[in-house]
Specification:
Layout (H helix, E strand, L loop, with lengths): L1 H15 L12 H5 L1 H21 L2 H11 L4 H4 L2 H10 L2 H9 L5 H24 L2 H33 L5 H25 L4 H24 L15 H7 L1 H5 L1 H13 L1 H4 L1 H9 L5 H54 L8 H27 L5 H27 L3 H20 L11
Helix pairs in contact: 1-3, 3-10, 3-11, 6-9, 6-19, 7-9, 7-12, 7-19, 8-9, 8-11, 9-18, 9-19, 10-11, 10-17, 10-18, 14-18, 14-19, 14-20, 16-17, 16-18, 16-20, 17-18, 17-20, 19-20
Length: 438
């Protein structure tokens, strides 16, 4: 036991880099004493979940799988809306139920099992069915996965705020993002190197994702979480509508939600880079491998750095990533205008920059929300922001489809404007860190 504790504290000290002797600032003493082990459990469980996400990416992996099994193109078009809307829109309506739980880690554990079940359904549909029937099964599995993820998203930020002190939260999520990216990079390389066995590799990845989520739940179950306030645990539409008042009462929450909504452009833009890179006669399957690899490399080299910077000033991270995302999109348009879109280096370079920015957006927004929200309202604030973002994502998807009529370049230009606008809105947010990102 002492050897285990020493190893945990050694790993925690190396990752958290606490050399100033500070004490915990906004978690109880009991949680502070358990923080080293909780930190490692967060990094392990969240990393497994992120890795599984990369293996079951609906924009890339599942889109290819649906095409491979002969599902109708209309079903392929439903993948991203089901994934995004299913993960975000229900959150406002489940936050009160999660709040009624004294220890909310169990909600995340159950959600991890649910995501594993969703991945298993997708795998079984791909193995046992074909055509429209397989497509329907995959969509059902994805819906189960997305709904479970909505529970995990609400519960996680609340548990993170209770078990890891302010100043270490960005670091733990950044650590998880870094090592999980290495797993997905391995997946991308295997896809590229063994292209003839791509179908079997994708099916194996689905099985690994299902097992990964179950294991993540087991790791998370061991967190030391103090019982929290559980008043106001009524559930349903009334509680959800009542919670919307916080958007009106808390101007910072409203401004943060707007900034985050505009910064969703960094998530919506990558497919359009692939369109410009491949052209009408391009190899979509090759585009899949390039996007997975570029996204994973970006997460690997940037997650930990963005996490450390977010602990100093998550506001400035949101500003920087908005500017960086817009710059990457403008760079893409410049490459296309110069006739470089089909070269081996131009679009991967621009895509890498965009995915670095997107990784920063994800870490910055998560850290800012946890630090901004009152301790007893973290789950509610998370649900409000995520539900509104779900609506914005759907609206942005419609706008992107309309813009696509005028070409991928026009769509990217609109997303670049959104990213720059997100940086400007983030500039007006309250500074919650020490204001230093250097």
């Amino acid at each position: 036991m002492s050897t285990h504790r020493s190893a945990v504290e050694l790993a925690y000290g190396a990752l958290a880099a606490e050399d100033d002797g500070r004490v915990c600032r906004d978690i109880p003493d009991s949680a502070c004493r358990a923080q080293p082990e909780n930190f490692i459990r967060h990094a392990g469980a969240l990393g497994l979940s992120k890795a599984a996400d990369g293996l079951v990416d609906p924009k890339l992996v599942l889109s290819w799988l649906m095409t491979h099994i002969g599902a109708p193109s209309a079903m392929v078009g439903l993948l991203v809306p089901i994934r995004e809307a299913g993960a975000l829109l229900p959150q406002l309506f489940i936050a009160a139920r999660i709040r009624s739980m004294a220890r909310r880690k169990w909600a995340w554990v159950a959600a991890a099992a649910g995501q594993g079940a969703g991945a298993a359904i997708i795998l079984l549909a791909a193995l046992l069915l074909d055509g429209a029937a397989a497509g329907a099964g995959i969509l059902i599995g994805l819906a189960v996965l997305a709904l479970a993820r909505s529970v995990a998203s609400v519960a996680y930020k609340d548990v993170l705020g209770k078990t890891v002190d302010k100043g270490q939260r960005g670091t733990v999520t950044g650590t998880a993002g870094t090592w999980s990216a290495m797993v997905v990079i391995g997946f991308a390389l295997v896809l590229i190197l063994f292209s003839d066995a791509r179908a079997g590799i994708v099916l194996g990845a689905l099985a690994l994702a299902a097992a990964g989520w179950v294991l993540a739940g087991g790791i998370f179950a061991g967190l030391v979480e103090e019982a929290g306030a559980s008043e106001g645990g009524a559930n349903g539409w009334r509680a959800a509508l009542d919670n919307l008042r916080y958007l009106r009462e808390d101007r910072q929450l409203a401004r943060f939600t707007l900034a985050r909504g505009l910064l969703t452009s960094t998530a919506l833009a990558p497919p359009w880079l692939v369109v410009l890179a491949s052209g009408d006669g391009g190899d979509a399957l090759g585009g899949l491998g390039a996007l997975v690899l570029a996204s994973s490399l970006a997460a690997l080299v940037s997650s930990y750095v963005w996490g450390r910077l977010a602990d100093r000033s998550s506001r400035q991270v949101l500003m920087l990533t908005g500017v960086a995302g817009a710059a990457s999109m403008v760079l893409t348009l410049g490459f296309a205008a110069a006739g470089l879109a089909a070269t081996i280096w131009a679009m991967p370079l621009a895509l890498f920059g965009l995915m670095v920015a997107h990784q920063g957006v994800r870490l910055g927004r998560s850290t800012y929300l946890v630090d901004m929200a009152p301790q007893d309202l973290r789950a509610v604030y998370t649900a409000i922001a995520n539900t509104v973002i779900g609506v914005i994502l759907l609206a942005s998807g419609v706008s992107g489809a309309v813009a696509a009529l005028f070409g991928a370049g026009t769509t990217l230009a609109l997303f670049a404007v959104m990213a720059a606008g997100g940086a400007w809105v983030a500039y007006g947010l309250e500074e919650l860190g020490d204001g230093r990102v250097s």
